[in-house]
Amino acid sequence: MKANDKNKLWWLAAGAGALLVARSVYRNLTAYDFSGKIVLITGGSRGFGLVMARQLASEGARLVLCARDETELENARMELAGKGADVLVQKCDVTVEQQVNDMITNVLNEYGPIDVLINNAGIISAGPVAEMTLQEFEEAMNTHFWGPLYTTLAVLPSMKARQEGRILNIASIGGKISVPHLVPYSASKFALVGLSEGLRAELKKYNITVTTANPGLMRTGSPRHAIVKGHHKEEYALFKIMDSSPLTSISAEESAKQVLDALRYGEAEVTTTLPAKFGELLHGISPGLMSSIFEIVNRVLPGEGGIGKKRTKGYESESDLSFSKFTESTDEAAVRNNEV
């Protein structure tokens, strides 16, 4: 290689390095500081919401947790307050607009305007689409689309008035790639991704930053609360094993760190876990190929039948396989994250 060419390559490498350093410095200088900020987390009493609450509390955030179960909320409040966190809990069903509006009014009166909104409340139904009814689709849409919309519309006036705010929508890799046996969940998460991306474009002029999170499988302990249909024991066992395996999932703590960093730095989108990132990339290159792969996967999943359209919860569908050494990490996470 000629000396002139070597010099060009050196300068290119040096320039690229300088750009990376400058980007890192800029990100750190403009990073959002959660200390003292009022952060509302829907579905914050257990699972991923609680894991994020712990991390935000360690940074000095003032927390507002909302959920439907008062006992779970009180357990979460006691844990966080016991570690010195400033936390307010509010019983609220985010699928009911009036309850959301009343909750936001309560928070404004007791704490002040909300600085950060994290739309995290979720529900999941597992089983063949032929065993799903309109109820599963309506519940998913109410929880993953209407709930985030209600809360967002409720906090927007004060954020716009202050010309500042952050919104984090916890979607899913299932909102980028529709997964067999999770069709109501995926369809509703697709809707949330569309809502979130549109809001980011329109709200930036008010200095309100919207981030979309698309987590892959993570060990929160939440499968025990899933609605399972069809051959429910087989469905649940498969779901729980996938959720527990380090090959297909990551810890909820690591996922929360990545998601909150994306919020901190004002990123448009974040996807966690290598399998989810690979699936997203492959789907972007060839949606048809991704569909063909899932067609093959669907053939080996439990078929229709079993309890059919009847509903049961994950914890009611335990078997020797779902309660074994292959699922220990999910069971441990369930205890740790207030899922039991």
TrEMBL record:
Gene3D superfamilies: NAD(P)-binding Rossmann-like Domain. Residues 37-221 form the Ketoreductase domain. It comes from the Bacteria. GO terms for molecular function: oxidoreductase activity. Keywords: Oxidoreductase. It holds the Pfam family adh_short. InterPro entries: KR_dom, NAD(P)-bd_dom_sf, Sc_DH/Rdtase_CS, SDR_fam. GO terms for cellular component: membrane. Belongs to the short-chain dehydrogenases/reductases (SDR) family. This is SDR family NAD(P)-dependent oxidoreductase. It comes from Pontibacter cellulosilyticus.
